[in-house]
Structure formats: structure tokens, C-alpha cells
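A quick aside before the break. I want you to see a complete sequence-to-structure record at least once, exactly as it would be stored in a machine-readable document. Don't worry about memorizing anything.
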Amino acid sequence: MSSERLSRYYDEHAGALKRELAAELSREDLKALHRKRPAAHFAVALWQFGRMGAAGTLCWRFSDPLVWVPAALVQGLTVFNLTVMLHEVVHRNVFRKPSEIGYRVLGSLYALPTGISASQFTRWHLDHHAGLGSDTQDPKRHRLSPKRNARWLKLLYFTPALFFIYFRAAGAETATYEPALRRRIRIERLAAVVLHAAIAGALWWSGGLGVLARAYLVPVFLVFPVAFAVNRLGQHYAITPGDVAGWSTRMRRSRFWEVVYLWSHYHLEPHDFPGVPF
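That is the input. The structure line, written in C-alpha cells, reads:
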């Protein structure tokens, strides 16, 4: 199924909502909200990679749980936040002028540490926006959301099983893409596998299983799934099916979650204004 076939579902149902929003916000307000600020974006990126490096160093050097456990938590959350940075790339919310090369480089930079394909995430996420509200045309709802109301199944999303669940869902959706895109996704995934294998091998070689566990296995396979699942709970699980304005979850402002999740807990707003940075 092509993105063209998916791209009308939300628009067909959200016309009245968009007209209401347009009446509430002035043209000047919308222009200010949509202003791209590359310096601010790169400051956030520097913050993320800086704390990833610092947390990784602490995990590598210290075996005291009072040091490495908090550092591993920060490391895992930062890996997740790179998907938020990738989200900004997907919606072209970084540069003031079009820059396909710039966005491709940034997409790879943010995607590789998470192990996902930038091209797959881009198509998946844009189709999610286009098909929001549909049981089948939104790939997140169709492929990724649990189909059984069972606690044990939902809890799996907070465990390393998330990787199997996600890549199985992504694989099923990718099978519907055009051949050229599927080839690009395979190349990007191979690059991610090579990178992660190299990182794991280097950590094992430099410090053995203890360093590998502290600096890589725990942050990626234990912390990341929890960060992913908690963030996802604030997106599309407290919704009003009969009201388009309630197809995403509205979250109250929280300075704490703004810092932890880089403003991504605001998920209702980006569906109506995807061109507004963060």
C-alpha cells in the first residue's frame, strides 16, 4: 500500500477541526510557531550526544551501582531521545531552507544509535500521520499496538521483547513498500547492525562482560524499552474515538517531561501542526 493511498484519511476527517484551529490562531502566531531555529536544534543535539558520552564514560569506568545505574538510565533515555531528534528530521523542522543532504546526514546520525532505519522510520511515521484514526491505514495502530487486552502482552512492550515486536511490525509494513525503498531500508539496517556489533565488540574487548553490560546491554535492552513504552502511553492510548480532536492524547505541561523526553510528550499538537519544531 503506497503512502499516496494513505495520505487522505486524517485530512478527510479533520477538516472541521483544522478550520476551527485556523480561526483560533492568527497568521502571525502560526508563522512564529513554524519558524525553524537550526541553532536551537543543534544545541539540543549537542546536549544529547554530550550526555550520552558522559553517561557512557561513567558506565565504562565505574562498577559501583550508585554511579553506573543512574548513568545507564540517562544513557537509555538519550538513545530514545535520538528518535525524537529523528522525528524533527522527518518533519523537516531543522533548516530554514530545504537541504536534502543535510536532512539525510542528520537522519542517519540520529537513527544509527537506535538501530533503526531512517528511511523506514520516515515512511512509517508519515503514514502514521496520514492514516491517524484508521484501524488499518495507521501502521502504528495496525501493526504495533497490542491487539489483545492482556496485561502480560502489554508488559512485554516494557522489556527487550519490544525489539522483536517492533521489528516484526516494521518488517510486515516494509513488505508493502516499493522495491527501491525496501533496498535502502535493508542497507540502513545492515549499517546499524554493523555499528552496534562494533560497539559491543569494543566494549567487550576493553572491559569484558561487566563493561559491555553496564555501557550497552542495560541502557539499550532494559532502559530503552521502558522509555519507549512510557512515552508511547502518552500518545494515543487515552483517546476519544468519536472526536477527531481526541485521536491523540492531550498532555498537560510538565517541565520534568519536557527535559526527559524533549517535549515529545506533547503528541496531540504535532498531529495538527507537524511543521512546528519540538
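Two observations worth writing down. Residues 3-272 form one domain. Confidence is low (pLDDT under 50) at residues 1-6. We'll return to this after the break.
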